[in-house]
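Input (structure):
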C-alpha cells in the first residue's frame, strides 16, 4: 500500500521512521521504561520529520506575532525556518512535502509520542491527504513565557501517522459487564492474582537481575493460558523509510468468485432492510480490497431501510 510524498523542485524534507527510543527513557534506572511495550510501540508508530538545522525560540507572553522570537542557526534553509505566523504564543514550520495516502486514509500530524519538551507543546491536526492538493504546517505553542526553547539539528519537529478515516465512526462503543465474558473474566482474575503475588515477592526479595523484575506476558504476547493472544502481536515496529520511487499502478479489476460475491451482497441487502449491522468483512473475506468494501458498505448505510 503506497504512502506517497510528492516533492516540488527544491524540496528536501528529512523524514525517517520514528525512533523507538527517548532520552528520558534511556536515563531511567537500567532503562526500565523500555519494559513498557505500549510506550515502545507508540514511539515508533509513524514517521518523524526533522529540522535540518538547529534553532531557538522565545515567547514574551503576548498574543501578537512580534511576541515570538526565533533565532535559527547558520545554514538554515529559508523554506525550513520556523516563523511567527499566527500569534497566540505559537510558531509555525512549513512542511515541504505533499503527502498522498490511499483512498479513505487521513494523516494525523503532531509531535512525537512520549517526547515532552519543556516550555512548549506540539499542536495536532488530521488532514484528508487522499485528495488534498495542499501542503500543511506544523505548529508549536508555548506553555511558558520568557523561556528559550531549543531544537537541535536533526531533532524531530513533526510526527505523521496515516489513519483510516471512517474507522472510529464505524465503532460502536459499549459498556459491558466483565462477567458477560467468562473467559476474559477468568484470565483477568488470574492475571490480577499473579501480579499481586509477583509484586509481593519482588518487595520481599528483590531479584538480582533487572530482567526478573517484570513478568513480560504482555511483552511476549501471551495470555494467562500461555497461548499467543493474536498471531500478529508486535514487540517491535519496522516501518520502511521513504525512498525514491513511482506509485504502484491501480488494480484494474479484482478477481472475486461470482457466487460468493452474490451471497455477500445478498447478506448486505438483508442487513439494510432489517436495520442490522453492516460488516465490511462480508466483502473483504471474499477478496475485495478494504477501500472498495468500505465504500460499498458506506453507500449501503446511506440507503433507507425498508421492510422486505
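Output (sequence):
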Amino acid at each position: 500500500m503506497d504512502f506517497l510524498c510528492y516533492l516540488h523542485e527544491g524540496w528536501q524534507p528529512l523524514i525517517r521512521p520514528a525512533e523507538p527510543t527517548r532520552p528520558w527513557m534511556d536515563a531511567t534506572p537500567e532503562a526500565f521504561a523500555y519494559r513498557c511495550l505500549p510506550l515502545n510501540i507508540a514511539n515508533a508508530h509513524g514517521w518523524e520529520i526533522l529540522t535540518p538545522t538547529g534553532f531557538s525560540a522565545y515567547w514574551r507572553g503576548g498574543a501578537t506575532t512580534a511576541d515570538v522570537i526565533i533565532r535559527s542557526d547558520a545554514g538554515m534553509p529559508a523554506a525550513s525556518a520556523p516563523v511567527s505566523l499566527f500569534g497566540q504564543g505559537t510558531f509555525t514550520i512549513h512542511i515541504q512535502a505533499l503527502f498522498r495516502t490511499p483512498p479513505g486514509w487521513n494523516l494525523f500530524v503532531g509531535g512525537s509520542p512520549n517526547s515532552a519538551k519543556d516550555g512548549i507543546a506540539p499542536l495536532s491536526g488530521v488532514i484528508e491527504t487522499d485528495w488534498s492538493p495542499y501542503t500543511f504546517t506544523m505548529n508549536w505553542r508555548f506553555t511558558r513565557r520568557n523561556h528559550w526553547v531549543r531544537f537541535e539539528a536533526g531533532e524531530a519537529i513533526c510526527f505523521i501517522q496515516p489513519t483510516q478515516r471512517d474507522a472510529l465512526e464505524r465503532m460502536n462503543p459499549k459498556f459491558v459487564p466483565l462477567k458477560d465474558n467468562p473467559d476474559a473474566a477468568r484470565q483477568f482474575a488470574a492475571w490480577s492474582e499473579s501480579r499481586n503475588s509477583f509484586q509481593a515477592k519482588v518487595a520481599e526479595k528483590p531479584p538480582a537481575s533487572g530482567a526478573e523484575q517484570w513478568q513480560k506476558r504482555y511483552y511476549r504476547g501471551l495470555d494467562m493460558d500461555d497461548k499467543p493472544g493474536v498471531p500478529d502481536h508486535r514487540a517491535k515496529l519496522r516501518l520502511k523509510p521513504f525512498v525514491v520511487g513511482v506509485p504502484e499502478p491501480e488494480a484494474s479489476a479484482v478477481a472475486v468468485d461470482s457466487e460468493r460475491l452474490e451471497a455477500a451482497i445478498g447478506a448486505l441487502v438483508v442487513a439494510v432492510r432489517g436495520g442490522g449491522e453492516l460488516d465490511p468483512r462480508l466483502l473483504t473475506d471474499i477478496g475485495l480490497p478494504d477501500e472498495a468494501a468500505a465504500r460499498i458498505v458506506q453507500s449501503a448505510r446511506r440507503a433507507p431501510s425498508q421492510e422486505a
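Notes: The mean pLDDT is 89. The two ends are 40 Å apart (CA to CA).
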